[in-house]
Amino acid sequence: MDGSVPREALKRLDVFVGEWVVESDFPGLAAPAGRSVFEWALDGRFLVQRSEIPVPEAPESTAIVATDPQTGAYTQHYFDSRGVVRLYAMTFADGVWRLLRETPDFSPLAFRQRFTGLVADAGDTIHGTWETSPADGPAAWEQDFTLTYRRSR
Q: Which domain of life is it from (predicted)?
């Protein structure tokens, strides 16, 4: 394998690279804007996202996106200031960014999670929604909170 599959897959993520102001809408909670930075690491083999929202209920986080060397499929490795570690299956196609967690990994699966973000304004805005569903039984998705990323540079 010459590495072209994962490199091409990662190149599609260039739209994320930069600094973003993050506006959040948590039900029942007034949250000031936060910040998220996406940057390449280790010779462009991984996309790293660092996020902070100045609200105690919203932990600081670091996420690392990697690709499968055979298929180019994305996996997001998530870590936060609470000590939570999770794996998300990730897709990015046609301006739609999706994250999905439906099975236990490094932490118990108390609930399923998914995120859908729509890239707009020539790549300068991402409107996203996090949803949850009970871990047992059929998936009945309910909105958890929304995030809007606005490129600041």
A: Bacteria
Specify the pTM: 0.91
- pLDDT (tens digit, 9 = 90+) per residue, 72-107? 899 999 999 999 999 999 999 999 999 999 988 888
Question: 4-151 belongs to which homologous superfamily?
Answer: Calycin beta-barrel core domain (2.40.128.20)
- 3-class SS string, the chain: CCCHHHHHHHHHHHHHCEEEEEEEEECCECCCCEEEEEEEECCCCEEEEEEECCECCECCEEEEEEECCCCCCEEEEEEECCCCEEEEEEEEECCEEEEEECCCCCCCCCEEEEEEEEEEHHHCEEEEEEEEEECCCCCCCEEEEEEEEEECC
Q: Where are the domains of the chain?
A: 4-151
